[in-house]
Design goal:
Elements (H helix, E strand, L loop, with lengths): L19 E2 L11 E2 H10 L27 H8 L1 H17 L8 H10 L2 H32 L4 H9 L11 H15 L3 H12 L2 H24 L2
Antiparallel strand pairs: 1-2
Protein backbone atom coordinates (compact mmCIF):
# COMPACT_ATOMS: atom_id res chain seq x y z
CA UNK A 1 0.00 0.00 0.00
CA UNK A 2 1.43 3.34 -1.09
CA UNK A 3 1.37 5.89 1.78
CA UNK A 4 -0.57 9.07 1.18
CA UNK A 5 1.77 12.08 0.96
CA UNK A 6 1.34 14.43 3.87
CA UNK A 7 3.00 17.63 4.98
CA UNK A 8 5.80 16.95 7.46
CA UNK A 9 4.90 20.13 9.38
CA UNK A 10 1.10 19.99 9.76
CA UNK A 11 0.61 16.28 8.83
CA UNK A 12 -2.21 17.11 6.44
CA UNK A 13 -2.51 16.01 2.84
CA UNK A 14 -2.66 18.01 -0.36
CA UNK A 15 -5.65 20.28 -0.92
CA UNK A 16 -6.61 22.51 -3.85
CA UNK A 17 -5.43 25.61 -2.01
CA UNK A 18 -2.54 23.89 -0.19
CA UNK A 19 -0.17 22.16 -2.59
CA UNK A 20 2.58 19.82 -1.48
CA UNK A 21 6.10 20.52 -2.73
CA UNK A 22 9.42 18.70 -2.48
CA UNK A 23 11.94 21.53 -1.87
CA UNK A 24 14.97 19.55 -0.65
CA UNK A 25 16.72 16.17 -0.79
CA UNK A 26 14.72 14.50 1.97
CA UNK A 27 13.32 11.06 1.08
CA UNK A 28 10.33 9.02 2.13
CA UNK A 29 7.31 10.41 3.93
CA UNK A 30 9.12 13.51 5.17
CA UNK A 31 10.01 14.90 1.76
CA UNK A 32 6.69 16.72 1.21
CA UNK A 33 5.58 19.99 2.75
CA UNK A 34 2.92 22.60 2.08
CA UNK A 35 4.18 25.83 0.56
CA UNK A 36 2.30 27.81 3.18
CA UNK A 37 3.69 25.70 6.04
CA UNK A 38 7.25 25.96 4.76
CA UNK A 39 6.91 29.69 4.25
CA UNK A 40 5.66 30.16 7.82
CA UNK A 41 8.46 27.95 9.16
CA UNK A 42 11.12 29.93 7.29
CA UNK A 43 9.60 33.17 8.51
CA UNK A 44 9.86 32.28 12.20
CA UNK A 45 13.18 30.41 11.99
CA UNK A 46 16.66 31.65 11.16
CA UNK A 47 17.39 28.88 8.65
CA UNK A 48 17.94 29.14 4.91
CA UNK A 49 18.25 25.39 4.43
CA UNK A 50 16.38 22.21 5.33
CA UNK A 51 16.86 21.43 9.00
CA UNK A 52 16.89 17.68 8.26
CA UNK A 53 19.10 17.17 5.18
CA UNK A 54 20.83 20.59 5.29
CA UNK A 55 20.03 21.26 1.64
CA UNK A 56 20.07 24.97 0.84
CA UNK A 57 16.84 26.00 -0.84
CA UNK A 58 17.26 27.18 -4.41
CA UNK A 59 16.50 30.84 -4.95
CA UNK A 60 16.61 33.35 -7.71
CA UNK A 61 19.70 35.51 -8.05
CA UNK A 62 19.60 38.31 -5.52
CA UNK A 63 21.67 41.45 -5.06
CA UNK A 64 23.49 41.33 -1.75
CA UNK A 65 25.07 44.31 -0.04
CA UNK A 66 28.86 44.38 -0.53
CA UNK A 67 31.22 44.50 2.42
CA UNK A 68 33.96 47.05 1.87
CA UNK A 69 37.44 45.66 2.53
CA UNK A 70 39.84 48.50 3.41
CA UNK A 71 43.62 48.22 3.10
CA UNK A 72 45.12 46.11 5.84
CA UNK A 73 46.91 48.98 7.57
CA UNK A 74 43.67 51.00 7.76
CA UNK A 75 41.78 47.99 9.04
CA UNK A 76 44.32 47.52 11.82
CA UNK A 77 44.05 51.19 12.78
CA UNK A 78 40.26 50.83 12.81
CA UNK A 79 40.27 47.72 15.01
CA UNK A 80 43.10 48.94 17.27
CA UNK A 81 42.48 52.71 17.63
CA UNK A 82 44.39 52.84 20.90
CA UNK A 83 47.66 52.34 18.98
CA UNK A 84 47.07 55.47 16.91
CA UNK A 85 45.89 57.30 20.02
CA UNK A 86 49.08 56.46 21.92
CA UNK A 87 51.22 57.55 18.96
CA UNK A 88 49.42 60.88 18.83
CA UNK A 89 49.95 61.29 22.57
CA UNK A 90 53.68 60.66 22.19
CA UNK A 91 53.93 63.18 19.36
CA UNK A 92 52.11 65.79 21.40
CA UNK A 93 54.29 65.16 24.46
CA UNK A 94 57.35 65.58 22.25
CA UNK A 95 55.93 68.84 20.97
CA UNK A 96 55.39 70.07 24.54
CA UNK A 97 58.87 69.07 25.60
CA UNK A 98 60.60 70.69 22.67
CA UNK A 99 61.30 74.38 23.08
CA UNK A 100 64.15 75.79 20.96
CA UNK A 101 64.22 79.02 22.99
CA UNK A 102 65.37 77.29 26.17
CA UNK A 103 69.11 77.10 26.90
CA UNK A 104 70.64 73.65 26.71
CA UNK A 105 71.98 72.41 30.05
CA UNK A 106 72.99 68.96 28.94
CA UNK A 107 70.84 65.84 29.24
CA UNK A 108 70.65 65.88 33.04
CA UNK A 109 70.01 69.59 33.24
CA UNK A 110 67.38 69.38 30.53
CA UNK A 111 65.63 66.53 32.37
CA UNK A 112 65.68 68.35 35.73
CA UNK A 113 64.38 71.50 34.09
CA UNK A 114 61.43 69.60 32.63
CA UNK A 115 60.62 67.92 35.94
CA UNK A 116 59.66 71.32 37.32
CA UNK A 117 57.15 71.66 34.50
CA UNK A 118 55.78 68.14 34.85
CA UNK A 119 52.45 69.26 36.30
CA UNK A 120 51.95 71.75 33.50
CA UNK A 121 52.83 69.07 30.95
CA UNK A 122 50.29 66.58 32.31
CA UNK A 123 47.59 69.25 32.51
CA UNK A 124 48.12 70.25 28.88
CA UNK A 125 48.11 66.62 27.80
CA UNK A 126 44.84 65.80 29.61
CA UNK A 127 43.16 68.86 28.11
CA UNK A 128 44.22 67.72 24.63
CA UNK A 129 42.97 64.11 24.89
CA UNK A 130 39.44 64.87 23.58
CA UNK A 131 40.91 66.45 20.45
CA UNK A 132 43.22 63.49 19.93
CA UNK A 133 40.13 61.27 20.15
CA UNK A 134 38.52 63.35 17.41
CA UNK A 135 41.58 62.72 15.22
CA UNK A 136 41.26 58.97 15.81
CA UNK A 137 37.53 59.12 15.01
CA UNK A 138 38.33 60.97 11.77
CA UNK A 139 40.57 58.10 10.69
CA UNK A 140 37.68 55.72 11.41
CA UNK A 141 35.57 57.85 9.07
CA UNK A 142 38.14 57.35 6.30
CA UNK A 143 37.12 53.68 6.35
CA UNK A 144 33.41 54.09 7.11
CA UNK A 145 32.64 56.61 4.33
CA UNK A 146 33.73 54.37 1.41
CA UNK A 147 32.12 51.39 3.17
CA UNK A 148 28.79 53.24 3.07
CA UNK A 149 29.28 54.57 -0.45
CA UNK A 150 29.34 51.07 -1.99
CA UNK A 151 25.97 50.06 -0.50
CA UNK A 152 23.13 49.49 -2.95
CA UNK A 153 20.36 50.51 -0.58
CA UNK A 154 21.55 53.08 1.94
CA UNK A 155 18.05 53.71 3.28
CA UNK A 156 17.71 50.06 4.27
CA UNK A 157 21.10 50.24 5.99
CA UNK A 158 19.98 53.33 7.90
CA UNK A 159 16.78 51.53 8.89
CA UNK A 160 18.78 48.67 10.37
CA UNK A 161 21.03 51.16 12.16
CA UNK A 162 18.00 52.77 13.80
CA UNK A 163 16.62 49.39 14.83
CA UNK A 164 16.68 48.56 18.53
CA UNK A 165 17.71 44.96 17.92
CA UNK A 166 21.01 44.02 19.55
CA UNK A 167 24.26 43.53 17.65
CA UNK A 168 25.74 40.19 18.85
CA UNK A 169 29.30 41.53 19.10
CA UNK A 170 28.53 44.35 21.53
CA UNK A 171 25.16 43.17 22.89
CA UNK A 172 23.81 46.65 22.30
CA UNK A 173 21.65 48.24 19.64
CA UNK A 174 23.27 50.77 17.31
CA UNK A 175 21.39 53.78 18.82
CA UNK A 176 22.51 52.80 22.33
CA UNK A 177 26.05 52.30 21.02
CA UNK A 178 26.03 55.83 19.55
CA UNK A 179 24.78 57.24 22.85
CA UNK A 180 27.65 55.59 24.73
CA UNK A 181 30.16 56.78 22.11
CA UNK A 182 29.00 60.41 22.21
CA UNK A 183 28.74 60.21 25.99
CA UNK A 184 32.35 59.04 26.14
CA UNK A 185 33.43 62.08 24.12
CA UNK A 186 31.57 64.40 26.48
CA UNK A 187 33.05 62.70 29.54
CA UNK A 188 36.56 63.04 28.07
CA UNK A 189 36.33 66.83 28.43
CA UNK A 190 35.79 66.50 32.18
CA UNK A 191 37.37 63.13 33.05
CA UNK A 192 39.94 62.71 30.30
CA UNK A 193 41.27 59.25 31.10
CA UNK A 194 37.88 57.62 31.75
CA UNK A 195 36.27 59.23 28.70
CA UNK A 196 39.19 58.31 26.45
CA UNK A 197 39.05 54.71 27.64
CA UNK A 198 35.33 54.45 26.86
CA UNK A 199 35.64 56.10 23.43
CA UNK A 200 38.53 53.87 22.35
CA UNK A 201 36.63 50.74 23.38
CA UNK A 202 33.58 51.71 21.34
CA UNK A 203 35.60 52.98 18.37
CA UNK A 204 37.33 49.60 18.14
CA UNK A 205 33.91 47.99 17.52
CA UNK A 206 32.81 50.38 14.75
CA UNK A 207 33.91 48.35 11.72
CA UNK A 208 32.80 45.12 13.40
CA UNK A 209 29.32 46.59 13.89
CA UNK A 210 29.23 47.62 10.23
CA UNK A 211 30.16 44.07 9.21
CA UNK A 212 27.47 42.61 11.49
CA UNK A 213 24.85 44.92 9.97
CA UNK A 214 25.83 43.90 6.43
CA UNK A 215 25.61 40.24 7.43
CA UNK A 216 22.19 40.78 8.97
CA UNK A 217 20.91 42.63 5.89
CA UNK A 218 22.20 39.97 3.49
CA UNK A 219 20.68 37.21 5.61
CA UNK A 220 17.32 38.96 5.44
CA UNK A 221 17.65 39.42 1.67
CA UNK A 222 18.37 35.72 1.16
CA UNK A 223 15.57 34.72 3.50
CA UNK A 224 13.07 36.93 1.68
CA UNK A 225 14.19 35.41 -1.62
CA UNK A 226 13.47 31.93 -0.26
CA UNK A 227 10.08 33.03 1.05
CA UNK A 228 9.20 34.49 -2.34
CA UNK A 229 9.70 31.06 -3.88
CA UNK A 230 6.81 29.67 -1.85
CA UNK A 231 4.23 32.41 -2.40
Amino acid sequence: MVPIPVCRICYEGAEPHKQLVHPCNCKGTIKFVHKQCLREWLRVSTLLQCELCNTTYDMEEVQLEPLYEPPLYLLRICIYPHVLFLNLMCLYVGYLLYDPTEPYYGLMGFTLWKIFEFYKLITNLLQTLPYLLLCVATVQGVILVPALSVLHNKYRYLTYCCSLSHIPTIRLSVPVYCIFLVGGFVISFYFSIVGSFLVLIFLSKLYVIHSQLILKINTTIMKDAVLDMFQ
